[in-house]
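Quick check before the chapter quiz. The format below is the same one you will see on the exam, so make sure you can read both the input and the output lines.
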Amino acid sequence: MATEELALLGTMAGRFLDRHATAADVERWRINGSVDRDLWNKAGEAGLLGISVPEEYGGGGGDFRHEIVLMEQLGLRGVQGFALPLHNAVVAPYLVSYGLEAQKRKWLPKVVTGETVLAVAMSEPAAGSDLAGMRTTARRDSDHYVINGQKTFITNGLHATLVIVAAKTGQEGGAKGISLFVVETEEVVGFDRGRLLHKLGQEGRDTTELFFHDMRVPAENLLGGVEGRGFQQLMEKLPQERMVIAWQSMAAIERALGTTIDYVKERKAFSKRIIDFQNTQFKLAECKTQATIAKVFLHYCTERLLQRSLDNATASMAKYWLSEICCQIVDECLQLHGGYGYMLEYPIAQMFKDTRVNRIYGGTNEIMKLLIARSL
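Here is the expected output.
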């Protein structure tokens, strides 16, 4: 997968993060509950936003391989608070794939510059992985839709200025009648952001609740222009979202192993380095083997994604397996740090908190197993 272009992107992204996402910056974001708003503009100026958006809309014209490079650079530096992958590789593809031409020309250029920050609103207090159980409704009223409801666990919820909202437009039960609306948060009345949610990890991500009270959205903001296609659109894009989580897990694994190997080579116990104990060598050998197998599988899945042949079950395997292995390896690495592994000043302790959610968001791993089982 390595090419000169991808290597240059990695170098550029790494330099950007080293300058604008230092350890002090990341700590400040954790305390504040969000990254600085102008970081999005700086990322846009550096060419890191919309890298897989077609060039005709101002984007980089790349593909998922370019998004992987960014995820690796973010993960290796522990910059999980900057939800750039969600903006680039999860939400923007909805606009690219389903937006009408006028919609794409209106919204995508600002997505690339950072003037617009993206979010997607699917989860509700009573409907997480069960998208068909959502209660948010959208009723047609002349040339507008009136939307009422509530969403929760929304990443980029504080800064987002363009939110793709899933809502029921029909009376049919289950998944039927769901539509996606592009809500320009600064242009509508009846839109409210809730509090920043206090999370176990990834504290720097601005995760909030969103409320819609008779929110009037222009009918032209119905994504794709046809009602009732929302569930299909979500199902078609969820495999890539799950690959995003899998690759983020992979980056965390590599960071955990790297920092732990450095630690055990320096730390001593009973007058010998921790790395010189057979138990340490065996534990790290197991972790290295698991990481290698995981990455080979990820490359296989990525190739299928690029060929548009990645099915839902296989994407679910990637998300489930990588997130589980990630948590296991981070836990083993924390144990090798001894008491220091429990101290938040050490990166491994923060990784332990940050990676736990990988088994939950994007569809819980229990849901992943159900999806896999359906392919049996």
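If your answer matched, good. The radius of gyration is 21 Å.
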